[in-house]
Amino acid sequence: MSTRPVRLGLRQNLTQFSLLVVVNALVGGMVGQEQTVLPLLAEREFHLTGYTVLLTYVLVFGLSKAATNYFAGTWSDRFGRKPVLIAGWLIAIPVPVMLIWATHWGWIVAANLLLGINQGLTWSTTVIMKVDLVGPRRRGLAMGLNEAAGYGAVALTAALAGYLAEQYGLRPAPFLLGAAYVVLALALSTLAVGETREHARAEARQSSGSNSSTEHTALTNRQVFVRTTVTDPALSSASQAGLVNNLNFGLSWGLFPLLFASAGLAVDRVGMLVALYPAVWGIGQLATGALSDRWGRKHLITTGMFLQAVALALIATVGTFPAWATATALLGAGTAMVYPTLLATISDVAHPSWRARSVGVYRLWRDSGYAAGAVLGGIVADLWDLRAAVWAAAALSLVAGINVAIRMYESHPRTGRQHVDHTKDTA
After folding, report:
1. Where exactly are the transmembrane stretches of this chain (predicted)?
2. In 3-state terms, what secondary structure has residue 156?
3. Measuring CA to CA, which residue among 278, 95, 76 is closest to residue 196?
4. Which DSSP category does 409 fall into?
């Protein structure tokens, strides 16, 4: 057994951190293979017409991913990070095959159930492992790099899948991308990625030594859940903003391709618009994650939610490719301000001894947004139309921004109050 000392920091752990960035890009690519193609597949091959029925795959994906996020946090504390990561990729093996050979819509829904479990286990674990490695000083940058890799791959794969679908048909070509991603990610996770749980334990020892009270280090799962969901203003408002953020993403996944196609756009042009949102989102996080380490978390999150509301209102109003391109880029920019910053907020406030569980609870609520977006978007679109569903999401984004502005305290250690002010359990 190696006795090499554990060191915290991005530079000190650059090789492992970079491997995890690559793995998370492959995690994002598994979602990207579906984004452009599945809504069109539902209409053209499975002849689904009701938006609520069509969005069943987003609903199932969101519920399974949300629930798995919670268990990923607790399991990574109990069994280690690496076994959870490998298990997530094993679950993904059947997904591309099911998407290619499905003869009934139920198979598509079942594939997305497995995909949600895959995403919950793998994405949650790469987040936790990166936070373990970098320590407290560069969390915003770490989360920016993580989420940029994931959503950059969503964008690239969505655009490439749209091109393949236009050239070779909706199946099987786009989903061969996912098959390649699974093979590569499973090999990297098994053979190259190392365990990072000892890094979290090292940080916990340092944190306990520097704080006057260590009462907060021994929290039950219930106490962590209640604190992250309700009682801590930063943790709970971050969870609520995350839910609305992913409601917007779930809505975009299920309804944006249909809205754009209704204007007569070709599949490859629809794919470009669908890809632009996560592309700006992914690239923007390279800057916003690091900026949150300099400027603090709260104002970036508030501004990002308000910008998403404006962008969604614009998408609901316009009807041309250039105007939609502008609006989806704005939506991506608003999401880039929010996404890594919310994760950094959770990591600021949660003690290392229960941080993985708090991340799991946050991601439970955040990814419930997929399901909420599917239900809200489907019902509103069926009752009124696609544009009304987008207007509803814009209104919720505005409310979430107001909630953050009122309730969230600044969590970054150099720019605001630290989490030790909020460690007494009220559950």
Report:
1. 12-31, 51-72, 84-102, 108-129, 141-163, 175-193, 247-267, 273-292, 299-318, 390-409
2. helix
3. 76
4. P
Encode 183-192: b = buried (16+ Cβ within 10 Å), e = exposed.
Answer: eebbebbeee
Residue with tokens 């591309």: 96
- Return all residues near 201 (Cβ < 8 A) that are at least 6 apart: 6, 352
Q: Residue 421: which pLDDT band, with cuts at 50, 70 and 90?
A: very low
pLDDT digits (tens, 9 = 90+) for 164-218: 998 999 999 999 999 999 999 999 999 999 999 888 888 877 765 444 333 445 6
Give the span between the Cα atoms of 77 and 145, in whole angstroms.
Answer: 23
SS3 assignment for 120-132: HHHHHHHHHHHHH
Q: What are the structural domains of the chain?
A: 14-202+219-422 (1.20.1250.20)
Q: Tell me the per-residue pLDDT of 351-405, one tens digit each, with 9 for 90 and over.
A: 888 888 998 899 899 989 888 888 888 899 989 999 999 999 999 999 999 999 9
The span from the CA of 130 to the CA of 115, in Å, is 22
CB of 305 closer than 8 Å to CB of 328: no
Q: 420 — phi, psi (to 5°)?
A: -65, -20
C-alpha to C-alpha distance for 73 and 81, rounded to whole angstroms: 9
CA angle 367, 83, 95 (to 5 degrees): 55
How much is the average pLDDT of 284-294? Answer: 87
Q: How far is CA 76 from CA 197, 364, 365, in A?
A: 8, 15, 18
User: Residue 364 in contact with residue 372, Cβ under 8 Å?
Assistant: no
Q: Given the structure tokens 């505005």, which residue do they identify?
A: 398
Which residue shows structure tokens 């605001």? 416
Contact present, 62 and 115 (Cβ < 8 Å):
no
